[in-house]
């Protein structure tokens, strides 16, 4: 009988979940990405905040570094997730500074909402480009770097329940967010042999700059659909991303975790 692969070390009670690990979070200058970067720093990780808005990425980085949340470094990179070289450069910068790459969260996102018949092809393509192609590039390069380093890793891709049920006015976003699930499951199968796990979070309505731009009537309509009776806070998504990024979820790959207060369960 062949020897089974070794089980990863369990997490001792009370320990920091990402101590000594290196994480890159895209679109982390604000919103869910920033909350995730903060949670990772609190749990001991070196964190690189990657965002297309380089100035905002540097400001967010300074904010986290000044708060001295944990023992890790906080780094910034201007990074456009739709640009192959830019994605690779952000990951390489994290490795150059810390010698590792353990976690990549593909979180960057935009919306260009309109009913399908009013949506231009450009609005469709822009959203597919940032979410689906961006997540594919992030997953591909993260896998490549992690496999070369040989220490395994965790990739967490940010979908949305819009990709589960399809939202009015979001044929572009719903398609991209559904596509992220297929790509993540396929990638999970390909990279498992390198001890790289790929999982997905599907947030529901969470209070961030993206959703605060919504008209009040649309917000109220969504609230009525949530069994827990309230919107989620960015930290509540960040905690689930932390779980999927950490050894606490060592036997999960190709999973989709809804963080939606029961909406569209
Ligand atoms: N807020 C919600 O209710 C909610 C629900 C479900 C899913 N999501 C998803 O969570 C993720 C984060 O959303 P958020 O609400 O924090 O949004 P947000 O608009 O507050 O933040 C998105 C960040 O992504 C960055 N970004 C945009 N295009 C980029 C690019 N090409 N390259 C790199 N960075 C880029 C922006 O500069 C910004 O800092 C997105 O993928 C979004 O679709 C959000």
UniProtKB/TrEMBL annotation:
It holds the Pfam family adh_short_C2. Keywords: Oxidoreductase. Belongs to the short-chain dehydrogenases/reductases (SDR) family. The gene is fabG. Signal peptide: none annotated. PANTHER family: 3-OXOACYL-[ACYL-CARRIER-PROTEIN] REDUCTASE, CHLOROPLASTIC, SHORT-CHAIN DEHYDROGENASES/REDUCTASES FAMILY MEMBER. The keyword Transcription regulation does not apply. PROSITE patterns: ADH_SHORT (PS00061). One of its GO terms (molecular function) is 3-oxoacyl-[acyl-carrier-protein] reductase (NADPH) activity. Its EC number is 1.1.1.100. This is 3-oxoacyl-ACP reductase FabG. It comes from the Bacteria. Residues 21-209 form the Ketoreductase domain.
């Amino acid at each position: 009988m062949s020897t089974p692969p070794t089980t990863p070390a369990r997490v001792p009670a009370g320990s920091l979940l990402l101590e000594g690990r290196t994480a890159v979070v895209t679109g982390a200058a604000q919103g869910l990405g920033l909350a995730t970067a903060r949670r990772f720093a609190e749990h001991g990780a070196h964190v690189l905040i990657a965002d297309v808005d380089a100035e905002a990425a540097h400001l967010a980085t300074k904010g986290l570094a000044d708060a001295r949340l944990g023992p890790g470094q906080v780094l910034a990179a201007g990074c456009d997730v739709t640009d192959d070289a830019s994605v690779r450069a952000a990951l390489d910068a994290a490795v150059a500074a810390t010698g590792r790459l353990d976690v990549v969260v593909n979180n960057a996102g935009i919306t260009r909402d309109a009913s399908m018949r009013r949506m231009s092809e450009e609005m469709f393509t822009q959203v597919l480009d940032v979410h689906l192609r961006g997540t594919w590039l992030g997953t591909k390069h993260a896998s490549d770097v992690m496999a070369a380093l040989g220490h395994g890793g965790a990739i967490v891709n940010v979908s949305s329940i819009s990709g589960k049920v399809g939202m009015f006015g979001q044929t572009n976003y719903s398609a991209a967010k559904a596509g992220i699930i297929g790509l993540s499951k396929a990638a999970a199968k390909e990279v498992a042999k390198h001890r790289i796990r790929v999982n997905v979070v599907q947030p529901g309505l969470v209070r961030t700059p993206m959703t605060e731009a919504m008209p009040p009537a649309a917000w109220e309509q969504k609230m009525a659909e949530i069994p827990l009776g309230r919107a989620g806070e960015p930290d509540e998504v960040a905690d689930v991303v932390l779980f999927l990024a950490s050894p606490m979820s060592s036997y999960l790959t190709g999973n989709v975790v809804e963080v939606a207060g029961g909406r569209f369960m």
